# Entry
Amino acid sequence: MDDVINDDFLAELIKKVPLESPSDEFVNNVMAGIETVPVPVVEQRPSFYWLRSSLPYLGIGIIVVLILVSSDIPYLNFMGGKVFFSSLFLKVFQPLWISMKALLSSKFITYSLLIGVSAGFLFIVDKLFSRRFSA
Amino acid sequence: MKYQDDNFYIEKVLNGDSSAYAALVAKHKNLVFSIALKVLNNREDAEEIAQDAFVKAFHSLKSFERKSKFSTWLYRIVYNAAISRTRKRVLETIPMDNYVIHNYSEESLRPGVDEIDVNEQQVLLNKAMKNLSDEDNLLITLFYHGNNSIEEISSITGLSASNVKVRLHRIRKKLYDDMSTMMAERMN
# Structure
């Protein structure tokens, strides 16, 4: 099949047919185009970017661990140090619990606080995630 | 003007000498423009697309891996840009079964064409080429003027290598047929 296409006679004849030419200014226009089109600058992310972008996950992780450790869920009893952490957290947060006890005696205030804290938590998480993905 | 190998200019451009690109443009402008013109059939559009292709190639030169020739890479850029502009479908694929070459002989393809002088052959060929479709002219330009191999044309146009072969053979036969017919008309 290659022999059928490789025809020197026709090749020579066709090569004598001049190709179409663009305008005389073609080369100058291309070179002007090269100079005017700005080279896209690739924005370098800061080296600590991974730290900033992992903050939401870190925050959520800490909260989940705190909840699990300080909860009374029976199947978590196998966790080593659970008792220690529970007592530690209780000790650290005891003044806070005591001061809040009076506050939480009212159902209305309790529910308001719950909704407010949950909304605030969700707002912060949303902000952190949107900052992560828009950066 | 005698040009150096493409890689000579590419190295210069990559080393910061943008002006070396002008030589590459000058070297390839006619073929790049011809490819765009064959697809678009409009000189202004073809010139714009050809210019854009050169500018795009310049900015992508760093990513050119040199697995193919620079010209093949460049022709593919301009061909794709021209096709995108027309929103035309890519070259039609011809099933191999539809085209079987029977009893091929050089003489049967070009009876008498050798007997006339070169100038007359040229005139006949010009006329015969005008009877070809733009797509066929594009393949001829790539194969004969651009010295691209079947595989390179396949890579530029997206046609399979066997289809490029079939089409080129068919074009060649049509050119000889048309030239023979025109020659016979002249003699009568």
